[in-house]
Amino acid sequence: MLHIKKMFLIFFLMSFSLISQEKVTISGTVYDNSNNETLIGVSVYFPDINTGTTTNEYGFYSITIPEGSYRIQVSYLGYTTIQETIGLSIKTTKNFKLIEETESLDEIIIESNIEKINIRTPQMSVNKLNAATIKQIPVVLGEADIIKSLILLPGVTSAGEGASGFNVRGGAADQNLILLDEAIVFNSSHLFGFFSVFNPDVIKDVQLYKGGIPAKYGGRLSSVLDIYQKEGNSKNFNVTGGIGLVSSRLLIEGPLEKEKSSFLVGGRASYAHLFLPLFDNDNKAYFYDLNSKINYRFNEKNNVFLSTYFGKDVFGINDSFVNSYGNTVVNLRWNHLFSDKVFSNLSLIYSDYFYGLILDFVGFEWDSGITNFNLKYDFKHYLNDKLKLSYGINNIYIKFNPGEIIPNREDSGIVAEKLIDKYANEFAAYLEAEHKISDNLTFQYGVRFSNFIRLGQDELNTYQNNQAVVYNDEFKKYESATPTGTENFKRSDVISSFSNFEPRFSMSYILDDNTSIKASYNRMAQYLHLLSNTASPTPLDVWTPSGKYVQPQLLDQFAVGYFKSIKDGEYSLETEAFYKDIKNRIDYINGANLIANNEIETVILNGKARAYGLEVLFKKNEGKFKGWFAYTLSRSEQLTPGRNANEPGINQGNWYSTPYDKTHDFSINASYELNKKWTFNSNFVFQTGQPTNYPVGQYEVQGLNVPIYDDNRRNADRLPAYHRLDISATLTPEKNKNRKWQGEWVFGIYNLYGRQNAASLAFRQNEDTFKNEAVQTSIFGIVPSVTYNFNF
Predict the structure, then answer these.
(1) What does the DSSP 8-state code read for residue 47?
(2) Domain TonB-dependent receptor-like beta-barrel: where (predicted)?
(3) Which of 41, 399, 599, 738 has the fewest beta carbons under 10 Å from its own?
């Protein structure tokens, strides 16, 4: 009995000691040793107590643990892991500099730590790509491309070759929030989708959130594509570039003040149009863009960054038709450490998307765009080893220029016309916690409050019974209503105001060190709408704000997943099921005209949408052979019912496929490092054909057969399935140790077996046989490419 009492006393004293043990905070920043770039998502892991954290978007980490002596492991894919023992008795600031594996002689690789952190974190539905992976993926015309790389991931599809934007989990392209150094990018494509606007040489980190979206993000329903540019090399002057068949790029970076300040300037341009005059072709199609960044580290607690992007596309036919569009963004940021537990970031952001059109053969020019000014202040508060808080505010003032017609010839007969500018303000505040309940259970929960105000404009139409669309019972069709009058407002007036609470929740439960299950729920509100009745957005499409006749879109998304690290991270498996319910998703009445329409509310109806599916991602992360297999089985549908018992709605009030519904989406990406000179890469893609409509009959007019389309069968047919195989080989010549110049050749073949994928199907009467026929338009056959990349 006495023995039992002694054991109980010893156990009690040990427990009390652990409970009362003082805790200390260790914090710091993790850098790339070669250039002093901060690294995002680095694992800082303490194996003795099975706990750890990851660095934030600026390379900062903080963790609070009991006093003592511990092994610490700092690891990041592609870098040699740092292992050391550290004694902690007081709060400690410790920075780390990681060395790339290729630079290290004695490699210590413990990549499983990263997988363990990923399995334990409640964050799910996130895909991350680094610049090295993106550059390895074969793409059309040999240009490495972020958007094309994302399409190889589960749940992400495109509208086809030559189509801009991308679709996530059955959502529209305008439902993706695209951020470049926190600035909103409204158009992510060059040359109508052939290239993305993101120069791969400039990009440091890419993360795509498809679900379980953190509370700091808002304003879009489907996804968040968060892209961070490099900061510039603060140790050495460096030049990187590439020369391809249709475009070239150049990046210059270096220190302004060693170890404290650096600059970066990167540019790209295409030049294929310069060769067209050799073939008596006066057409032109080219793009160029420019990225720049300056940062200054005042001390350990204060960093300032200024980053910019400017890009422009020009497409012209004999100077009689010239189309130009592009993005401009500027972001001034201040990172400040209030303490070793409180990290803050203040950003002032300007973003502009412009679209111009010259129709010289008609005699006028067209100009439109959208501009916003954004102030955001974000905080990360590392309270202790079990609780982290994120909170902040975000305010965006937006000006919409729907379009202006400007005559450019006196004899054109065109009358100048300016569509009415629109104004809005979107404010948001958020609070979110990451809470470790136990060793096995972690929650991430929070709420975002958003408020959207449609500000006054010069004129706003009024309609009878407030219905901008009317149903013609005689002809059984929807028609645009005739305005009954107009209202006039001052700029400070409030036309409409919307407020929404957007709760976010996700959790992770650890089954063992290598396996977890996760679940998430998020509500999102979207107040901006891209007006487009094509499958893929075009520069002519116009953004419009929610208001008196257009309600904000609201999303509820649920997801559950199973995650497993296999063989200490050599392989990983991610499976997720999701369901999305969307309210107030607009669609267009039959025959809707969206171009230069000042009464856009007269051609749209409110409905709802849903999407659901299963995603599988299996990856091989280590070894000479790497890659992944991705498969998505999903549906994306829309319902636009009648507003009363006398109206049929769209598609007779039944569910119909959205233009971006892809039942099956299958992709394989593989890379093989044969030796230090040769690396081979390939990817295969298969997607169900996108929905469309085929004629259901025909009638004859003056000897011509005219196809008939059924207005009550929306998106009832499909284009043929899309599939292709791409391959590439990278040759890295043996380096001359006495030379700084390093180069590599990349040889590629896009669409190896020459699949003629259908971009569209048109129906016409054959001029010889006078029979109706379907004509398929395909963008690419087999496309070889060669690119020379260099670095010195």
Answers:
(1) T
(2) 295-752
(3) 738
Q: How far apart are CA 16 and CA 24, in angstroms?
A: 18
193 secondary structure, DSSP code:
G
Delimit the CATH 2.60.40.1120 region(s) of the chain. 22-111
Tens digits of per-residue pLDDT, 217-270? Answer: 999 999 999 999 999 999 889 999 989 888 889 999 999 998 899 999 999 998
Closest CA to 50 of 434, 509, 385: 385
DSSP symbol at 702: T
Element (H, E) at 5: helix 2-20
Q: Where in the chain are all domains bearing CATH 2.40.170.20?
A: 126-791
Spatial contact of 346 and 390, defined as CB atoms under 8 Å apart? no
Alpha-carbon span 501 to 496, nearest angstrom: 17
Q: Which two tokens stand for residue 755?
A: 């699949």
Q: How remote is the C-alpha of 760 from its chain's centroid? A: 25
Buried b / exposed e along 394-415 (16+ C-beta atoms within 10 A): bebbbebbbbbbebeeeeeebe
Q: What is the pLDDT of residues 166-198, one digit of tens each?
A: 899 999 988 999 999 999 998 888 877 778 888
Q: What are the Cα distances from residue 17, in Å, to 6, 7, 71, 350, 643?
A: 16, 15, 21, 54, 68
Q: Classify strands 664-673 and 485-487 as parallel, antiparallel or unpaired.
A: unpaired
CA 36 to each of CA 26, 199, 297, 487, 771: distance values in angstroms, whole numbers, following the listed order: 21, 20, 11, 57, 68
Query: By the 8 A CB rule, do 541 and 531 touch?
Result: yes
738, two tokens: 């006495």
Cβ atoms within 10 Å, residue 22: 10
d(CA 388, CA 341): 9
CA distance linking residue 638 with residue 604, whole number of Å = 14
Domain 22-111, what fold?
Immunoglobulin-like (2.60.40)
Q: How far from 294 is each of 66, 263, 264, 304, CA to CA, in Å?
A: 39, 4, 6, 8
Tell me the fold of 126-791.
Maltoporin; Chain A (2.40.170)
Pairwise CA distance, residues 509 & 585, whole Å: 34
Tens-place pLDDT, residues 4-20: 444 444 433 433 343 44
Q: Rounded distance, CA 340 to CA 357, Å?
A: 53
3-state secondary structure 515-577: EEEEEEEEEEEECEEEECCCCCCCCCCEEEECCCCCCCEEEEEEEEEEEEEECCCCEEEEEEE
- At 227, which helix (H) or strand (E)? strand 223-229
And the tokens for 638? 């829309």
